[in-house]
């Protein structure tokens, strides 16, 4: 009997710890920045569906996607404080902390490219395809140096 | 590219070790028989350009800062730092003095498929001729002629700065004896033309295995781990498994793989990164059919 209680208590403790761990993880910079990138990726996916013609052109979707990319790109470089180099399955490369200014400039370029495209608003499928080409070059240029698969 | 380089240069570890391993059974550089390069007919420049992009010559032989049209100037000069020293990639532009403008088709073909330089010396396998050895004489001829249409450059690359014993080209004979082969890397059940084309592109010009296949202590491929990925030898990050056994690529459709090679985006819209960026940019110049063929081959290799 007693041992069952102990086990139950231990399980409860573990669960508790698990939940607490998850709650705090959500605020960690590694997790926040991965969330921002997921949003960028998701938005690009929405644009790509239009560019490929699997979804019809829809101005509201285009606008929302570009805005999300722009906002995420601006918030992104703030999520690399000292101490967040490792952990939470980050695939951020150590080169970020060695060249922070260049890293920030690349994020800023993605933001300003998205803003410029927003300002002239792609009006059809072909316009969206062009936008993806431009933004896609920003993604790979940064990932080439600053992202490291582990 | 520095990472790429170390990765490809892993073969160089073998220079010393393999030399010893085979009892300094140093083999002479072996050229192809002369008739290998005979009767190839008029070159097809459009095909030569395809081989050029599939082979990714730009990644190593263009100036590191080159963009746009300048990517086609094969001036060399890129410094590839490795644990054994620094390689300075040579000029292969059509310049008669600084480049390979004076080379015959046979000289060029022997460098590409046998790793033999113009003075008959062994070339370092960091130039991925271990893969290019599979190129057909026709593709070599077309590539040779295409390279001649590119702008000449008078840049003279520095000599390599390698430490002893890595600076001894003669020891490369041992490595070649152990590992240089033009045999298929895997036996495939399928005789499908598309898969065969993919096999040629991946194992030959695309030299995908040079990064995606882990090496043994002597710098040769681990045969039972073809395209299985592994830690980056430089200790930073890892190279992904691209066989059907991969949790990631294994779950991608053929179209997903072809689309990644064309656009640089994964099915969940992650963007290509690391040393794969240059590879993707080069390979994206191939027609869709070729990218589909590569995808079909990647789906056919043994799962690891």
From TrEMBL, chain A:
Q: Which domain of life is it from?
A: Bacteria
What keywords does the record list, in alphabetical order? Electron transport, Heme, Iron, Metal-binding, Signal, Transport
Signal peptide (UniProt feature, chain positions): 1-25
Instruction: List the PROSITE patterns.
Output: CYTCII
Entry annotated with the keyword Electron transport: yes
Record's keyword annotation contains Iron: yes
SUPFAM superfamilies named in the record: Cytochromes
Q: Name one Pfam family in it.
A: Cytochrom_C_2
Q: What name does UniProt use for this protein?
A: Cytochrome c
Recorded source organism is Rhizobium oryzicola
UniProtKB/TrEMBL annotation, chain B:
Keyword Thylakoid included in the entry's annotation: no
For this protein, the parts annotated as crossing the membrane are none
Gene3D superfamilies for the chain: Cytochrome c-like domain
**Which residues belong to any copy of the Cytochrome c domain?**
43-151, 193-302
Q: Return the InterPro entries for the record.
A: Cyt_c-like_dom, Cyt_c-like_dom_sf, Cytochrome_c-type_DH
Identify the keywords attached in UniProt to this record, alphabetized: Heme, Iron, Metal-binding
- Superkingdom as given in the UniProt entry: Bacteria
PROSITE patterns, alphabetized: CYTC (PS51007)
Q: Where is this region: Disordered?
A: 229-249
Name under which the protein is recorded = Cytochrome c
């Amino acid at each position: 009997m007693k041992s069952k209680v102990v086990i139950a208590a231990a399980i409860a403790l573990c669960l508790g710890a698990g939940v607490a761990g998850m709650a705090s993880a959500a605020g960690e910079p590694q997790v926040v920045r991965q969330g921002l990138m997921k949003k960028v990726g998701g938005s690009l996916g929405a644009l790509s569906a239009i560019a490929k013609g699997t979804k019809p052109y829809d101005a509201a979707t285009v606008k929302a996607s570009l805005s999300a990319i722009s906002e995420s790109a601006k918030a992104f470089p703030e999520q690399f404080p000292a101490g967040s180099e490792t952990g939470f399955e980050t695939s951020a490369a150590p080169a970020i902390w060695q060249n922070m200014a260049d890293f920030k400039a690349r994020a800023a370029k993605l933001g300003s490219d998205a803003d410029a495209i927003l300002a002239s608003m792609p009006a059809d499928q072909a316009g969206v395809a062009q936008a993806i080409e431009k933004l896609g070059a920003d993604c790979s240029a940064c990932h080439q140096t600053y992202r490291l698969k582990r | 590219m520095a990472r790429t380089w170390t990765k490809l240069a892993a073969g160089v570890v073998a220079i010393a070790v393999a030399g010893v391993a085979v009892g300094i059974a140093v083999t002479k550089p072996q050229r192809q028989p002369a008739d290998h390069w005979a009767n190839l007919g008029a070159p097809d420049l459009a095909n030569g350009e395809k081989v050029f992009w599939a082979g990714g010559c730009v990644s190593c032989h263009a100036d590191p800062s080159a963009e746009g049209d300048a990517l086609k100037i094969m001036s060399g000069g890129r410094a590839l730092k490795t644990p054994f020293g620094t390689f300075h990639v040579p000029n292969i532009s059509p310049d008669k003095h600084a480049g390979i403008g004076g080379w015959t088709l046979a000289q060029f073909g022997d460098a590409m498929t046998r790793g033999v330089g113009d003075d008959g010396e062994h070339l370092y396998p960091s130039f991925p001729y271990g893969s290019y050895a599979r190129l057909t004489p026709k593709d070599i001829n077309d590539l040779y002629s295409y390279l001649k249409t590119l702008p000449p450059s008078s840049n003279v690359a520095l000599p390599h700065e390698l430490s002893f014993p890595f600076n001894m080209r003669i020891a490369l004979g041992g490595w070649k004896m152990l590992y240089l082969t033009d045999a298929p890397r895997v036996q495939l059940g399928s005789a499908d033309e598309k898969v065969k084309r993919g096999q040629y592109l991946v194992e030959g010009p695309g030299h995908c295995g040079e990064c995606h296949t882990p090496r043994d202590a002597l710098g040769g491929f681990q045969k039972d781990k073809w395209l299985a990925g592994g830690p980056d030898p430089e200790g930073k990050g890892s190279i992904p498994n691209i066989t059907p056994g991969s949790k990631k690529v294994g779950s991608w459709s053929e179209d997903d793989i072809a689309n990644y090679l064309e656009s640089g985006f994964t099915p969940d819209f992650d963007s290509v990164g690391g040393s794969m960026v240059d590879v993707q940019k080069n390979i994206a110049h191939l027609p869709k059919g070729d990218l589909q063929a590569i995808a079909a081959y990647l789906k056919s290799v043994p799962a690891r």
